Amino acid sequence: MNWFFITLGYSGLFPKAPGTAGSFVALILGILILGFFQVETLFLATILITIIAIREINKYEEKSGIHDDKRIVIDELAGMWFALSVAPAMSISVGEITQFENGFLIQAVLSFVLFRYFDIKKPSVIGRIDREAKGGIGVMGDDIVAGFAAGIVSSLIWQAWVQLQGMM
Predict the structure, then answer these.
(1) Residue-range definition of the domain harbouring residue 39
(2) Which residues are within 8 A (CB) of 28 and not within 5 positions of it... i.e. 6 or more apart?
(3) Entry pTM
(4) What pLDDT score was predicted for residue 39?
(5) Cα torsion 148, 111, 60, 50: sign
(6) Under-70 pLDDT residues of the chain
(7) Number of folded domains in the chain?
(8) Residue 5 counted as domain residue
(9) Which of 7, 31, 75, 127 has CB 3.0 to 4.6 Å from 143, enough for a Cys bridge?
């Protein structure tokens, strides 16, 4: 078991709101990756990390007997990176993340807020996965779905905003 990995560089040890701390670290890392690589790289890295995380979480749970320990925040990284892979990264190319006009940073922050909302409130399928799936799949699954939902909703909000601006 790699404690550094599953706590996302020990950000999960933050005394208050470790999930939010882990999500913020994931947001910063995701933005940095998108500054140098295409969105496909972030997406594929997320899949790889998710597969490794499921194995490592299963090892941790078997050893500790604790399911979904709040200090484990690698699931926040997967969810946040999936959100960034869906939106806003799809609308930009490498090097455009600092251009305010393209909305990348706005969508990234919106994706962060929406991801935290979906991860905390666990509506619909997200809550069902959290309650019913066991082991690493359960820990990672709800965050992955929350990330996709956050990315889609972020993209829809941004597109509605752009359309509204065009009408004015």
Answers:
(1) 11-167
(2) none
(3) 0.90
(4) 86
(5) positive
(6) 1, 88-102
(7) 1
(8) no
(9) 75
